[in-house]
Amino acid sequence: MTDEHDTPDLRRLGVEPDDLDGHTIEELGEYLDSGRMPPDPSIDDSPGCLLALDALERLRGLTPGLIAADDAAEPEADEGWVQKILTGIALDARPGRRIPIAAGSPHADLGITEGAVRGLVRAAENAVPGVLVGRCRLDGDVTVAGAPIRIRVDASVPYGQPIPGLADRLRAQIAVRLRAHTELNVVGIDITVHDIQLLPSPGEEGR
Amino acid sequence: MGDDGFHKTLAQADDRIVAGRAADGDTAAFAVLVRRYTPMMRAYARRMLAGSADVDDVVQDAFITAWQQLPALEDTAKVKSWLMRITSRKAVDRIRAHKPHADLDDVEAPAPEHLSPPQAAEARAGVQALGEALRELPGPQRECWILREIAGYSYEEIAEELEVPLSTVRGLLARARKHLIVRMEQWR
Questions:
Q1: At what angle do helices B125-136 and A47-73 cross, to 10 degrees?
Q2: Domain residues for A61?
Q3: Which residues from chain A sit within 8 angstroms of residue B115, using beta carbons?
Q4: Does domain B106-188 have CATH number 1.10.10.10?
């Protein structure tokens, strides 16, 4: 509560057009929403409107606090909850397109899914500690054998190491894995590093 | 790095990485999103539903829809506001299912009487009073206000979400604001 009412307000907050020199709360709310632009002197020069605008702004000022308090009042998600949701989605893998693999025999029809290839790309991060692979896209018609394919991946890297070197190592690891497990004609691997991550300190890691 | 270290790294990764992996089918990354945003989505659904027991159902539905639609999310860095929108939609669906004939031009909020005992979670007094005043609003006014002020919807988006004319949204929002500022003034 504030105690700054040395000069008591002569006017009290009113919310009807009579109190607002003919304006409505609806208009004033939208005036605030538009950042009080363009300026409207019939609002800006009206004491009744200014009182109401102040009240609307105070209300708006409280909203972030309400959101924060609401969030803080909720418990963390427990593992039972997380597992319940994962169970609901587990059957829905994301196979994506089917990528052919040349068979030694005309009677065999071999292939690998795009989802499996993405898994291979992600696994390359294991060889470059601290690097995380994000989204991975295969640009090009992967369903046609030999079609040129560009791989695009997002990555985050650990703090304190030169980014170009890490990106090169990741790129090399992705290439090795794709060569070993697919017949994709990879013409380029583009890595976008958008985040640098502070790793958990060694002391914390063991916990 | 051990498995534990890896999971810690993933749990700390930014939304773009985590949601990008989940979009590509990595369920461990999706679990990180579930842990990260369950409290926010529950809090939001709780405000929308105002005391209904359906909060967890709404949030669970929202996550399942999110998993299905993640591949279509172009900018995975925006996954937080995107999840909020899915939660809004699920909450509105739930409200509609329970009240099929809800009249959107329903009664005014009951005349303010006195503040009921504040909930402990709403720490600051002003915030507490706002939380209480919000609970007093009739459903449609409250939903409109929350979509606008908490989820950041435009008037047009609210009209679409609630399937009502734009003029109705304007009216509901104005009445909600009127009630809230009068209430806050009494509290001061």
A1: 100
A2: 1-74
A3: none
A4: yes
The answer to whether A59 touches B173, Cβ cutoff 8 Å, is no
For A132, the closest of B4, B9, B76 (CB atoms) is B9
Please check whether residue A52 is in contact with residue B180, taking contact to mean a CB–CB distance below 8 angstroms: no
Residue A75: its chain B contacts at CB < 8 A? Answer: 39
In CATH terms, the fold of domain B1-101 is Rna Polymerase Sigma Factor; Chain: A (1.10.1740)
Predicted complex: ipTM over 0.90: no
Q: pLDDT digit of tens for each residue in chain A (207 aa)?
A: 444 444 445 567 888 888 999 999 989 988 998 899 999 999 999 999 999 999 999 899 899 999 999 999 999 999 999 999 999 887 767 888 999 888 777 777 788 899 999 999 999 999 999 899 999 999 999 999 899 999 999 999 988 889 999 999 999 999 999 999 999 999 999 999 987 877 655 444 433
- In a shared domain, residues A4 and A50: yes
Distance CA B128, CA B132 (A): 6
Instruction: Please indicate, yes or no, if residue A93 is contained in any of the structural domains.
Output: no
β-sheet bridge partners, residue A156: A132, A195
Q: Chain A contact for B5, CB < 8 A?
A: yes
Q: How many domains does chain A have?
A: 2
